[in-house]
Design goal:
Blueprint lengths: L1 E5 L7 E2 L2 E2 L1 H18 L3 E5 L10 H15 L4 E5 L6 H5 L2 H4 L4 E3 L10 E5 L2 E8 L4 H5 L10 H12 L6 E7 L1 E2 L17 E2 L9 E5 L5 E3 L1 E6 L16 E7 L5 E7 L6 E6 L1 H4 L2 H4 L8 E6 L8 H8 L2 E7 L2 H4 L7 H5 L3 H13 L5 H18 L1
Parallel strand pairs: 1-4, 4-5, 5-6, 8-9, 9-12, 10-11, 12-14, 17-18, 18-19
Antiparallel strand pairs: 1-15, 2-3, 7-8, 13-14, 15-16
Helix pairs in contact: 1-2
């Protein structure tokens, strides 16, 4: 059984106010070329089809064209909703499309049944678990203690009762503990959305979405395929790809990647204004068309630098300086540091900065109760 694993298309996304739809249309055509070459039995899209829960009409049309193209190739397609999607919109028309081999995840209702495919080795059961929070799962398990995302996903998986004699594939959209994030993903304060990889023990392959850099989680059996395009400069060194998964007999798994070449790359350049505007520096590169982040090292600001540089670097997205003045500026806590702290830690630091004194014991106790109540409603 050969499957192509995709995720996080984020159709309709804008990066630094640059619309990405043209690049997305281009990369979807590249993916179709991979599909034609690989001739898989199925294509998986593990969530975040769109960048917003109410996507622009152009993004919906683009995804519709992509689904029609896949359906014309007579293969199975599996699509789940991610945290950026509206589960109701992704689920719309799913019962009709099932008959054409296009399987859209329904809104989570505590009752996930597999779609079964067969090959010479037997049956492969494919389970589709859309992005869920603890509150979504608690609704169907009021008698169980579901305090965390790990609890929620473990409970949802237990309801599936996968047959251990068959090959089982899970498609889901969650943050597995230990995965390396990038700047273009949503970050939950204190890592409250972490899911422990142990909850996926029953599956021969777990097709994950949510994390934008391609990576395995402990083993190739649990994998993020990453985005097909770069959506932040923290991903500039990534090699975007689709993941090709092959399941032979039970216990036999092969995972490999096919690299994707974008219409425009995302690159970071550094140097003085004079260096970066030398024809010999840029003329033999694609930088004039690529999405560019430039860091100028000039000690003095260059008047209208962004306007002048865009004459050469047409898609200059971001400009900043690295010099004595900027290095002497205030250092702001980075996303990675903030993620490792609890909401109470972060609020306590903020309170002390604002009031020049720490919270009292009574104030701390009040905030603990307030945070527990608020997070309990949202999780």
């Amino acid at each position: 059984m050969k499957l192509i694993h995709l995720s996080d298309l984020h159709l309709g996304k804008r990066v630094n106010e640059f619309p990405m739809l043209e690049d997305q249309e281009y990369i979807l055509k590249k993916i179709l070329a991979v599909v034609d070459e690989e001739e898989p039995d199925g294509v998986i899209i593990a969530g975040d089809v769109y960048d917003k829960s109410v996507p622009p009409a152009e993004a919906v049309q683009l995804f519709d064209d992509f689904l029609v193209s896949l359906a014309g190739r007579k293969l199975a397609v599996f699509v789940i909703s991610g945290n950026h999607d509206s589960p109701e919109r992704i689920a719309f028309g799913s019962r009709i499309m099932d008959g054409e081999g296009i399987h859209m995840s329904p809104v989570y209702d505590g009752n996930i049944k597999p779609v079964s495919l067969t090959d010479p080795y037997g049956t492969v059961d494919i389970y589709m678990l859309p992005f869920v929070k603890p509150v979504h799962v608690r609704r169907f398990h009021e008698d169980q203690e579901i305090a965390s995302y790990t609890d929620a996903v473990a409970c949802a998986v237990a309801d599936m009762h996968p047959d251990p004699s068959r090959r089982n594939v899970l498609i889901t959209h969650q943050f597995v503990t230990g995965a390396a994030r990038s700047e273009s993903e949503e970050i939950s304060v204190g890592g409250s959305d972490n899911v422990d990889a142990s909850v996926f023990a029953a599956f021969d392959y777990v097709a994950l979405g949510h994390i934008h850099s391609p990576q395995n989680c402990g083993s190739e059996r649990i994998r993020y395929c990453g985005t097909p395009l770069k959506y932040s400069f923290s991903e500039a060194d990534d090699h975007k790809s689709v993941t090709v998964v092959e399941l032979a007999e039970k216990g036999s798994l092969t995972v490999r990647t096919v690299e994707l070449e974008p219409k425009r790359d995302m690159v970071e350049l550094r140097g003085t204004y004079e260096q970066l505007t030398l024809r010999s520096f840029y003329e033999k590169t694609s930088w004039q068309e690529d999405y560019v982040h430039i860091t100028l090292t000039d000690e003095e600001d260059v008047p209208d630098a962004i306007g002048k540089l865009r004459i050469i670097y047409r898609n200059l997205m971001k400009l900043d300086y690295d010099n004595r003045r900027t290095r002497a500026g205030v250092q702001i806590t980075g996303a990675d540091e903030a993620e490792s702290r609890t909401p109470l830690n972060l609020f306590a630091e903020f309170y002390e900065l604002q009031n020049n004194q720490p919270m009292s014991g009574e104030q701390t106790a009040f905030m603990e109760q307030l945070i527990a109540r608020t997070w309990g409603e949202e999780l």
